[in-house]
Structure formats: C-alpha cells, structure tokens
C-alpha cells in the first residue's frame, strides 16, 4: 500500500526522466565550486534554475542561501523543509573528468554539488505535481556547511523555520560507503558534536645544552598530548562514543634550541551534551595543571562547533518507509552513526526530522574514495534515486496525520 496518493513508482519514473538535467546541474556546480559564504555563482545558478522550473524563491538568505517554496494546491496542510548544502572544500581535485573543477584549489569533495542537483530535481518534480498534494514544501539551499559556525544557524536566525512554520525537516548526504541505488538510515544521534581546541604552552626557551635554565615547551606539550588520551580511555564511560584527536603540534625550528612555546591543535567529538561540556572543562584543567606542574603556563582556547545531529525516531521510520517505496526494502540499509560534524543538526534541533544517506558508490567503476578525498566522486545514476527519496519522504510527511 502506497503511503501517499502519488505512486512511488511514478515518482521514481519522474525522477529518472530528468536524469540528464540532474547530471548537467551536478556537473555545472562541480565545475564551479565555491567555498562557504562565497557561493555567489552557485547561488545565481540555483536561482536561474528555480526560475526556469517556475518556483517562487528568495535569494540572499544567510548571504548566499536560497529558499524556495512550493505550495500544494490540493489544500492547506503542514510544512516540510528539504535541505541541501552547496559549499565546496579547499582541495586540489585529482579526478580526471570532463567536469573537473575550473576553480583551482577548490573542489566539491563532499558531494554538496550532488545535494544541490538533487534538491533542484525535487523542486521540479514537486512543482509539476503540486496539484496532487496538500501543504507546503520549503526547499533550502544552504551555504557554508564545511566551515563552522556554518550557514544553517544563520538561515534559522534569518527566519527560515518560520512563515510558514516548519513541522519537519529532511536532508540527505551522499556516501560512497553505500552503492548507488541504496539508502541508509539511523535513528537517534547520527553525527557528533564537533568542537575545536588550541592549547598554547608558554615555557622558557634557551640553549639545548642547558635544559635546567629553560622550561621546555616541547616536553610539556608531549605530556599534555599523552594525558589528553585519558579523557576518553579513563574519564568517559565505555558506552559513550567520544574522540579526542590532536591534529597538529607546532614548536621549535632547530635541533639545538629549546623552544619556549608550543601549540597543540585538535578536535573533540561527542554525542552527549553533558559529556561535551565535561570534555571542555577537563581538557582545560588537565592542560593547565600539567603545564603548571612543569613550571609553564597553558592557555586554552576551546570552541564549540556544530551540536550533535539527532534523527527523530518516528521521522526516521517515516523516511525509511518512504525510501523503501522508492528503492525496495532490500536496498535500505541501517547505517552506523559517524563522529563527523554536520550543521543540519541545527534544523533538527528545531523540528523533528531525519538526515539520511544516499549511496553514490560504484565499486565496479572505482567510485569508492571517501568524502573530502581529492579523488572523491559521485555515481550520477544515484541522483534520480535521491530526488525520488526526497520527494516521497516530503509527500509521505505531508500526507501523514502527525
Ligand atoms: Zn564535508
Ligand atoms: Zn558534507
């Protein structure tokens, strides 16, 4: 039994019928990647395409964001938000293709080009079928997902959740870990809170042969790095996921000089809000305490990034059922949570919803490189699958009683 008046088979067919358009949109955006809040040309392209499709839209939301609204003409009803992010990464592309980045050093290595193309496709299908549903679909093209504080919170501050008020929010992320044709779901926490820290050790520099006259920032920084490992192994419940990673240490220039200063850069990932707070406090105490015990001083800068992304249980069930109608139950996969950050979390803090995964891998064609890899690519046959899944999910929500 179909969940809505529109048959999922029809939707899949409608999405497949615009495959060429989807590929053309994705390739255009892929060739012209732009970094967060600099998506000027991307934004113009989205507005142009929405104009061609005949969808009412607003530009300049959160600087480069675009918001389109499609009202179903079958009656009044609820409002559902569909979100795509649109920014690229500072990566030199290593994929040789006809659609390689024309903006050197910038690359759509996270698949946000595909997200944007999918949402444009969803706009087209929904606009053509607006007489078949009641309620409103808000299509949100969001800038700057990759760089905290990110575009989502700014769009929310500019009122994207209101007028009409959003009742549920859905979005997808491409992943080569699933093959094209598959969809992945995870109820509950699915992405981690992602926070950053910088620890500066202030010691006293001097001659390498007179350590007693110095306070060695390298040795102290080393103690701090090792001690930080116990935040997870000895201070966090084994049932709670958490990561502390030191990604950079900077100190010194020569073999015979003791540096007086060292800098440690890293990130902390957690799901639990209390644990998140505890990590900040304990990392700070530990760094300062160790430095003080070794006659130095530690300065700690701790910056909260995106909160953890939590998929609502009921909305995940709805999205999963809608997805299964499109790809068949055998192609719906239960995915694991990741400790990567994602600012879709802000939308899902304000409305129940689900952020799911669209398989874009193709092992036979060698499309296996992970997100953010310079050889990352997307199997474009997955684009219509994404469109059908997004549209069916939105329509199922609008048709649901909740
Ligand atoms: Zn990314
Ligand atoms: Zn991403």
Written description of the protein model:
With 402 residues, the chain is of the alpha/beta class. Helices cover 34% and strands 26% of the residues. The protein has 10 helices and 16 strands. The strands form 4 sheets. Strands 1-2-4-3-5-16-6-15 form an 8-stranded mixed sheet, with helices on both faces. Strands 10-12-8-13 form a 4-stranded antiparallel sheet, with helices on one face. The longest helix is centred in the last third of the chain and has 21 residues, at 273-293. The mean pLDDT is 96. It binds zinc ion (2 copies).
Provide the fold topology.
Elements: H1 8-17, H2 19-31, H3 40-53, E1 56-61, E2 65-73, E3 79-85, H4 112-128, E4 134-142, H5 151-157, E5 168-179, E6 183-185, E7 188-191, E8 193-202, E9 206-207, H6 217-233, E10 242-251, E11 257-258, E12 261-270, H7 273-293, E13 297-303, E14 309-311, H8 313-327, E15 332-334, H9 344-350, E16 353-361, H10 383-399
Parallel strand pairs: 3-4, 3-5, 5-16, 6-15
Antiparallel strand pairs: 1-2, 2-4, 6-16, 7-14, 8-12, 8-13, 9-11, 10-12
This protein binds zinc ion (2 copies).
């Amino acid at each position: 039994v179909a969940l809505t008046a529109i048959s999922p088979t029809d939707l899949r067919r409608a999405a497949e019928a615009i495959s060429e358009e989807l590929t053309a949109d994705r390739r255009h955006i892929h060739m012209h990647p732009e970094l967060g809040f600099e998506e000027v040309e991307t934004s113009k392209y989205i507005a142009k395409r929405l104009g061609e499709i005949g969808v009412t839209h607003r530009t300049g939301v959160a600087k480069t964001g675009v918001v389109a609204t499609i009202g179903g003409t079958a009656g009044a009803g609820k409002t559902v938000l569909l979100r795509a992010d649109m920014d690229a990464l500072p990566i030199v592309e290593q994929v040789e293709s006809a659609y390689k980045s024309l903006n050197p050093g910038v690359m759509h290595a996270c698949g946000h080009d595909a997200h944007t193309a999918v949402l444009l496709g969803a706009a087209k299908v929904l606009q053509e079928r607006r007489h078949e549903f009641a309620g409103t679909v808000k299509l949100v093209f969001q800038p700057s997902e990759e760089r905290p504080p990110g575009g989502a919170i700014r769009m929310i501050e500019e009122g994207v959740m209101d007028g009409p008020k959003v009742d549920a929010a859905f979005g997808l992320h491409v992943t080569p870990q699933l093959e094209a044709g598959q969809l992945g779901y995870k109820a509950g926490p699915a992405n981690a809170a992602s926070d950053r820290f910088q620890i500066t050790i202030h010691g006293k520099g001097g001659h390498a042969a007179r350590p007693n006259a110095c306070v060695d920032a390298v040795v102290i920084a080393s103690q701090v790095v090792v001690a930080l490992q116990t935040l997870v192994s000895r201070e966090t419940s084994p049932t709670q996921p958490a990561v502390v990673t030191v990604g950079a240490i900077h100190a010194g220039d020569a073999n015979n000089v003791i540096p007086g200063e060292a800098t440690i850069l890293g990130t902390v990932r957690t799901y639990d809000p209390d644990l998140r707070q505890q990590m900040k406090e304990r990392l700070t105490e530990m760094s300062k305490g160790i430095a003080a015990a070794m006659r130095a001083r530690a300065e700690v800068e701790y910056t909260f990034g995106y909160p953890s992304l939590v998929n609502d249980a009921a909305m995940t069930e709805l999205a999963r059922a809608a997805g299964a109608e499109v790809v068949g139950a055998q192609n719906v996969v239960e995915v694991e949570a990741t400790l990567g950050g994602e600012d879709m979390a802000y939308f899902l803090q304000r409305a129940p919803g689900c952020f799911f995964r669209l398989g874009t891998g193709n092992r036979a064609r060698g499309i296996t490189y992970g997100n953010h890899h310079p050889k990352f690519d997307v199997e474009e046959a997955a684009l219509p699958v994404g469109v059908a899944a997004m549209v069916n999910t939105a329509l199922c929500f609008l048709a649901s009683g909740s």
